[in-house]
Amino acid sequence: MRRIVTVILSTITTVVLLFSYHTSTDSTTVGGSRVVQLLASSGSTSRSGSSNGKASSPPQPSSAPVASSTFTGEVAETQWGPVQVQITVQGRTIVKSQALQYPQGNGRDWQINSYALPVLDQEVVQRQSAAIDTVSGATVTSDGYLQSLQSAIDQAHL
Amino acid sequence: MSRRAWVEQIMGMPISIHIRGDDVDSPVVSRAVEDAFDLLREADRLFSTYQHDSEVNRIRRGELDLAQADPLVRQVVEACQQAQELTQGAFTDQLPDADGVLRFNPTGLVKGWAAERAASRLADLPAASFCLNAGGDVVVGGTIGAAPGGPGSTWRVGVEDPRDRARIAEVVELQHGGVATSGAAARGAHLYDPATGSFVDREGSVTVVGPNLMWADVWATALFVGPASLSRRFSEVAAGYRMISL
Lengths: 158, 246
Prior knowledge:
The complex is a heterodimer. Chain A is α+β, with helices and mostly antiparallel strands. Chain A has helices at 107-129, 144-156, and strands spanning 5-7, 20-24, 49-51, 68-72, 76-78, 81-90, 93-101, 134-136. At the A-B interface, β2, β5, α1, β8 and α2 of A face β1, β2, α1, β7 and β8 of B. β8 of chain A pairs parallel with β7 (155-160) of chain B.
């Protein structure tokens, strides 16, 4: 199986994310290990690199500014068009999420986008703070945003 | 105990597999995960309504006779018929296409079916526990923690609040089985009600938890689009399943 861990530069349009990662956890704090917090700060530098094994957390020097890494989800083909979500991670914190591309062809698209885009960041925080392992929702196949976001959370194991 | 996760984009959605166990890096685990993804890709090849040459699309165009179709396709067709009967017609595999013409479309059942089938490759991993999430439908299981509450065996599955998707409305704790959610609020009317011939556009969602994800998925859809009286039928025929109506 291809496993590509990619930290990308902003110009890359399509990155296949096939992440594999692991972390130690104990059974009583399974959800807790995934808690992330949303910080108001945003990263200014991007790193670029890849490995063919497990994703490792970006280095986290305790005093120096933490470099931010940008993870771009695979393009999700939805019935309304392609969707691609990108998250920016600083240390173990998602500081930003945005849709790089999304359907813009008709009224329904607009409705979806105007709804989906603003909730991305907030949703990351809420889902993680609920100390859960995974999410069941009515997202099914067409709403690429939130699925892609869920995927990003899974991949980054934040 | 360690934990490891894999994600791939299959069937138009990210599908994640999480494994907990003592040796999540073993080749046995990797192979099982690859097998599970392979089964999902196989299902996509056969059932996708987006891939021009999938068997389902060839059936829809009248190019492939059901009798000549892959045995897996016939298996799904049978399951669809069974689902239709069990849900008194609230579940259907006849959905309107882009032109409004009713055509064979087993999509409503395939995701749960395929995820359940893929999960079978993970279920027997020694001393491991798994969670597979296919675009919001979840199946968990494994061989650790035979005793309820055993270490690492329980997965906490958050159920999205359909009115505020930033919130988790409920948390289901599960060691074996499936959790499926159907609703329209998230992305507008997309669930079809065969009784009225229209798409359902109401608030809320229905989540069904039970031993088998495919049936949980079928019932979640049926209970969302069907009449209120269907919940009585559900409690009669779907032993071991429970619904969370939000």
